[in-house]
Specification:
- The structure is a single chain.
- 59% of the residues lie in helices and 18% in strands.
- It is of the alpha/beta class and 308 residues long.
- Among the domains are: 104 residues; 97 residues.
- The protein has a seven-stranded mixed beta barrel with strand order 1-4-3-2-6-5-7.
- It is elongated, with a radius of gyration of 66 Å.
- The mean pLDDT is 78.
């Protein structure tokens, strides 16, 4: 029984070993088939990045770096070849940055997707399908710090040029003027306080004036209403007067003027008669007393003849 038990255990061990070896080989071969190759490019330095560095996509481990080198066609470009799990699908909005790994000085690649282009990114070494490797936050802060230092130096130089002897004298004079202006401003503030103290009295006067203006406006409204009524009456009377004038005008044209014309003609005839009478009186005044018949000459008058 002892030998049989040992043989059984040995057989089970060999079976498990062979099965584990087969599964390990299958797993390794399956892993090779479940990866895709992507290439990242950058013009910046990739200090601390090495082959085998971990690649993260949105904080999750997605693959590793296979190789790092210069682009054969352009030595200014650095190419980072990455092996990514086949299940992960990238869009053309994906980009890469370098992240520090603890305090070791080594770096790792972090992939992000800004969603700017939803088209799928095709894996491979084609230049059109390369992932841009952007500067990390530390690099951007470093560049910004250098630029800030440069601007600070320029600012200090300009301040030195600004604060020369002549400008300092001008600044001192400006400060003196500011002090004088402040003193005058205080005086003005005191005067303003006095004026503000009189504002309530002025406000009361304005209120009384507004009340009087309101009364005046009410009276003006009443006067306007009365004037409107009077204008209405006057308009009616004017209409009646115009109608009366039209009737009188028609009567004047139809009746009075013809009669007046007849009267004028009669007056003209009478005038002509008076003219003739006046002419006759001027030539022969006796005619007014004796008439138009000629009298015989009396004794002593020319042409007198005695009766025979």
């Amino acid at each position: 029984m002892g030998k049989d038990s040992f043989a059984l255990v040995t057989g089970l061990f060999m079976t498990v070993l062979i099965a584990s070896t087969v599964m390990l080989i299958y797993w390794l071969s399956d892993v090779q088939h479940q990866t895709k190759t992507y290439v990242a490019q950058t013009h910046q330095s990739v200090t601390g990045l090495k082959s085998g560095s971990t690649v993260y996509y949105r904080g999750i481990e997605a693959g590793k770096v296979i190789s790092i080198g210069f682009d054969p066609d352009n030595s200014d470009v650095i190419l980072v070849v990455m092996e990514i799990d086949e299940d992960i699908v990238f869009t053309r909005g994906v980009f890469a940055t370098l992240q520090m790994k603890g305090v070791t000085g080594l770096t790792q690649i972090a992939l992000q997707d800004n969603g700017s282009n939803p088209a799928h990114l095709i894996p491979g070494h084609n230049a059109e399908n390369r992932i841009p490797l952007k500067p990390s936050l530390i690099e951007r802060l470093s560049d910004s710090g250098e630029e800030t230092v440069k601007q600070a130096r320029e600012l200090m130089g300009r301040l030195n040029d600004l604060l020369n002897d002549n400008n300092r004298q001008h600044i001192e004079q400006i400060l003196v003027n500011v002090d004088t202006a402040t003193y005058k401003l205080n005086q003005l503030e005191s005067s303003a306080e006095k004026i503000l103290d009189q504002v309530p009295i002025l406000t009361a006067d304005v209120h009384q004036s507004l009340v009087k203006m309101n009364h005046l406006a009410d009276e003006f409204t009443l006067l306007s209403q009365q004037l409107r009524q009077d204008m209405t009456v006057l308009s009616n009377q004017s209409t009646k007067l115009m109608q009366t004038g039209n009737i009188m005008g028609q009567q004047l044209l139809n009746n009075t003027l013809p009669r007046a014309e007849t009267l004028i003609m009669q007056l003209q005839a009478m005038t002509r008669k008076f003219d003739r009478v006046g002419s006759m009186l001027e030539t022969d005044p006796q005619m007014f007393l004796f008439g138009t018949e000629l009298l015989k000459p009396a004794p002593g008058e020319p042409g007198f003849k005695e009766a025979q």
